[in-house]
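Q: Is it fine to ask for two folds in a single conversation?
A: Yes, each is treated on its own. Send the first.
Q: Here.
A: Result:
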Amino acid sequence: MTLLGRSLFALALLLAGSPAAFAADVKAGDLVITQPWSRATPGGAKTGAGYLTIENKGSAPDRLVAVSGDVAGRIEVHEMAVNNGVMTMRPLEKGLVIEPGKTVALAPGGYHLMLMELKSPLKQGDKLPVTLEFEKAGKVAVTLVVQAVGAKGPGGEGGSMMKQHDHSGMKM
């Protein structure tokens, strides 16, 4: 095999194992949902979190009002914030608005999907189907790809931020 052939083969193997290689954009009405992912949890954990990005390419707002999936007893849209050095987390009772022409990132340390009453630990490489429900776009199926414990994003990088914003050990 030539050097170019070996390089292309190595690249193909790398991409095949990369979550970004199979995480396709999902379009629903005016919304584009990208990079759905989660983090692995330790055994016995009852909670986890899901992350993704939602872009509204339309001219009217839409709202993420509910989330469901077999992975957990319930899934809520949450907001995390630090106020005066105190971390607070709360469910968004009225959902999450995605304004027209804007992009909302659900990411560690901010908005996220709170997976409660996990049926089993989340393991790196797992694919978790969930259904997002929007006021206008309706129900949208996406798959959260589970990254390593401590991952900062869908590329699977680890980091110390996990200790600060990881929900996997929380008891509800």
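Q: Second one now.
A: Result:
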Amino acid sequence: MARTLITLNELDYNTASTVTATDVDITNSHYIDLNDADAQNLALVFHGSTADMAVTIKAGTFSDATLGDLEFTVGDGDITAVNIESARFKDADGYVLIDVSGATADGTIEAIVLP
């Protein structure tokens, strides 16, 4: 399975920024590449589709990975935000893996590096 890359948006202090969303890919799921980012904390924003979306952010391989996966549901048409840290979710390849199911293709995901 070739996962779909989620665009990583970086913000500056006291500056308005345009954020790029990535369309939900229910066939391949997603990943965020943190290899070139100075990212300890990320905000993920899920814009619900016309069906409930089950989301699993996979535990990584670093110190807090023992806390396990994070699972939640984004309701039909809802907007759900979650703040995650790389110590729990980044894997040895520098990726955060996100699985989605149940959604339709009209949902989106935004990944924002918190300054």
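Q: Anything structural to flag on that second result?
A: Two points. The two ends are 32 Å apart (CA to CA). The longest strand covers residues 41-47.
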